[in-house]
Amino acid sequence: MNGSWGAVEMVWCLLAFLMDMAGGIVILAIQILGVELNATDVQLGLIGAASPLGYAVSSLCNPRVSSAIGRERSAFIGSVVYAIAALSLTLAYCTRSIFALMVISTVSGIAIGFYWPAVQALMGTSAPQEKLPHFITIYNIAWSFGRTIGMRFSGILFMHSPHTPFVVGALISFLVASVLVALQKESSHHERTKAHSEAIAQSNVEFDELIVASAQLGNLLRVLTVGAVVALFPKWAKWMNLNPAQVSGLIFLLLGGHVVSFIAAPLLYRWINPKMLITIKAAIIISSISIAISSRVWHFALSFTFVGICAGLACTTSTYYSILSQGKTTRGSARHEATVGSGSVFGPVIGGWIAQLTLQPRSPYLLMAFLGLCLLALDLCYLLRHKLRTR
User: Fold this and answer.
1) What whole-number distance in Å separates Cα of residue 381 and Cα of residue 384?
2) What region does 205 belong to: left with phi over 0, alpha with psi -120 to 50, or beta?
3) Which CATH entry fits the domain spanning 5-389: 1.20.1250.20, 1.10.10.570, 1.10.10.60, 1.10.150.20?
4) Is the pLDDT of residue 67 over 90?
5) Torsion angle, CA of 294/43/113/291, rounded to 10 degrees?
């Protein structure tokens, strides 16, 4: 069994790559379509928040759902419904309805909430404890590289035809569903998940809940910032006469920074501590300010790369502690993914609101920096409590 788990988990990582590539194609295409439909800043923020809202709610419900129907089945349902939703997005373009775009985006978020917590838990519980950091690294590289490639080609596909990115995203999601069926049949011959789940649950690894919370706060700041960029930058770019392909190229750098961080992550796990988690948040705040003061394409390129690297560090620490703390359930993964969803809701919504209120496309990123300072203050409180408890 020790020789077989690696191959199966590599398949899970391949599915993470494919599913997030589909997500990257569809998510950015939704925002570009919103711009094409002349959505206001507030509407664009709501469009960007629709899918994460469904995702956050669905992720929180996933522990009970996956316990009732099984994690493999939860992931399969999510991938199929996501494919159907992606195809339905072509109707929003045909009807030129911003409301339809919001509704279908919400459904796609609900679908993906069935997929990610289940897949993350399946991969986490199947890996032996001593190999978990290495495995999380592969998983993070897989999904982030998929998201990076997806968003890089989203604008190019949109320029070919507004229907194309949604059709391609649906086809990839259907492919994922097909592989899940084959994987479920294969796993029925083994009890690897049960055995390895028990091994993790019975391990002697100790962790502090305050450190877990701090890591997840960093992930919240990450998705607030990245969510605002993905949802709102396409309109700012249009004002600067950048085409969708150029927008994809810049956001490619943002997500490419994630990949760089995930590759370097194994060198950092041994040094993860509260001070490091605070430093990561401070770096994201600085990168938000750098986006706000950018005025040229190369400025944005540098700023997006920097925020991507910092955000990747926040993500990998949150993923590590979330999986480590959950035992045999999807509870830790669900909290991590719900943080992703909720941050991706509030980032675009409040960012779009402040952009329309101030008539300044730079203001959302200054707002993200301010929110980051608030989270940093909260984190310092957590650190103080941690010191008091460990005395």
Assistant:
1) 5
2) beta
3) 1.20.1250.20
4) no
5) 10
